[in-house]
Amino acid sequence: MNAKTLTCKVAGVGAWGANFENWHDLQALLCGQPLPDKPQKGPKPAIIPANERRRAPLPVRLAVESSWQAVQHAQVEPASLTNVFVSGLGDTDLTDYMCKVLASENKELSPTKFHNSVHNAAAGYWTISTNTMTAANSVAGYQESVSLALFEAMVQCEAEGVPMLVTFYDAPVSEVLKPLLENTHAFAFSLVLFPSVSDHGMAISATIREAIAPEWPTLSAQSDYLQSLYTSNPCARVLSLAEMLMQQNAKHDAITMPLSEQTTISFERVQP
Amino acid sequence: MGIDIIDYESCSAAGVNLAQLRSSLAQHKSGLVKNCLTGSDIDTWIGKVADVDAINDLKEWQSRNNALAALGLEQGSILNNVSALIKKYGAARVGIVMGSSTSSIDRTETAYQALDEAGGLTTAFKQPLVHNPHAPSLFVAHYTGVKGPSLTINTACSSSAKVFVTAARWLNLGVVDAVLVGGVDTLCLSVLHGFNSLQLLSANPCMPFDHNRDGINLGEASGFAILQRSGDNANRTGIQLTGYGESSDAYHMSHPHPEGLGAKLSMTQALERAALKASDIDYINLHGTSSRANDLIEGGLVSELFPKTTQCSSTKAWMGHTLGAAGITEAIICMDVLLTSLMPGSMNLAQLDDAIDFSIQAENLTKNCTHVMTNSFGFGGNNCTLLFSKER
Fold first, then answer.
1. For chain B, how many structural domains are there in total?
2. CA-to-CA distance for A256 and A261, rounded, in angstroms?
3. How far is B237 from chain A (nearest CA, A)?
4. Are A23 and A4 in contact (CB under 8 A)?
5. What is the pTM of this model?
6. What does residue B219 show for φ and ψ, rounded to 5 degrees?
7. ipTM > 0.90?
8. Which residues form a coiled coil (chain B) (predicted)?
9. Domains in chain A with CATH codes
10. pLDDT tens digits, B24-52
11. Which of A69, A81, B116, B299 suits A158 as a labelling partner, its CA being 20 to 30 A distant?
């Protein structure tokens, strides 16, 4: 059987959701801390210039907020990172806006909303706000968005020998598509990955194997909110990896995710 | 890096398959027609693939985008070659990387025109695997039986150029033994009315790099190529992917960088990776959308970077700007120059823009070429350059 192992180091983490505003708060929730009294509305990432931020759609603000946190956590220049952005569902609010206008008599679209509707809007706003001229990939993997984006980022990290930013984000689904795509939660999570030769960061490995795809791993955290987030938001499936990354968490030192119909990807913390 | 191109096929208004595309290119036969898309009254020209209209048996996978992907996969020897590779390596050792900008939003638009009284989706449109941005890869995996990693790249108009780069990395690291790469994008109201809102559409057939160009024409296309590590398959085209560049403009969501800094990075990276000089490049298939801004900026850069011995053209007057499918459509035209020695001219070019100082003309030329390059630039300032060479 062919198995291939990729390695890298996790040097920075960023996270944002309605009940946590950074990786520190998310870890507390994953450890069983109660939810805050009141959920927050969307993030307002300061790195996007104010005039642009007003026009930036929620998925973009989610992605940029957690990306900025991860970059600061890793203490790197954003422009030094090569980027992979993933959303499993896209911007369904803008899809809804465009499809409603286009189903009506007057089909005039807002030019700003149209250019914001591209799937790589988050990558665009991020590279513009941080003056990043490296490659920015924007990908989709529906229910496998998390495993595919981690795979793509670790492949790029190893093949090109460059530090990476990988950001996972999905916003609540608009009313018409909700019965199909389900998600009602805003969520974003980012990792800064260094090539494994680097002195910094937590070493992890990813092994790709041929096997019938398993179910997604069970999330240890039991709160209704986290369980609902984990099952309905395709990008929140990264929470299983987040639990593995938590320093104090010894329960998961390896997890296996479905990568495709007949391949799996297993992540492990590599002991120094 | 050593990546062999095993096979390729193209489906656009300029020809439903590669054989027809070659004949259209040779005869300067454009596929552009006056806008006839149902529900759209915009005064422009489009590159529509008429044969897609008849494909309506895809059941839960039905969308115009998936139909165009299916039509493309049925051309030439692509499906046979994918089946042979699955048999040889196993379905899990073959990957898919698809590029698209619209995915299947055509179907979502249609669904919204047919909502029930309560404003909900009607039965025929309850298609979760279609109404999401990963739809092209999900469908192509279903259609071909590929069961290895399959990823969709959605970086607007550079999408299906970047698929070659991602596939090359997967192959070089040995996570798969073959990759089916593709691009598919269909004409729909979102793109026609969206580009119209940006005042980028022309009411005339587009004329890239012409002094009097006044905008773009949109088109639809699907294209596929099979990639393997060098030497793994004796049955191959003799063409290799030898270089690539990927960059960001860091400038604006829908305007290119005024000095083309990002585009310059992607072209110079591709040359460096292939260890070639600008003077080694025989032919460049330019992004050349026929918009005032793109052609001026790309034209200026190519004038600065490449000598007059490098022949250039934009082929968008044959099938229009096929957005997320443009990268692979033009990669195929570019690769095919290495096989046919026919360098397509820049159709509709009458009076060259004064700011342009590189070798370009309307007529086709014949030359035995060794190295060719193609540019794709997308919204969000997303750039990709591919470099293909004849196998030594």
1. 1
2. 14
3. 25
4. no
5. 0.98
6. -140, 175
7. yes
8. none
9. 7-204+232-237 (3.40.47.10)
10. 999 999 999 999 999 999 999 999 999 99
11. A69
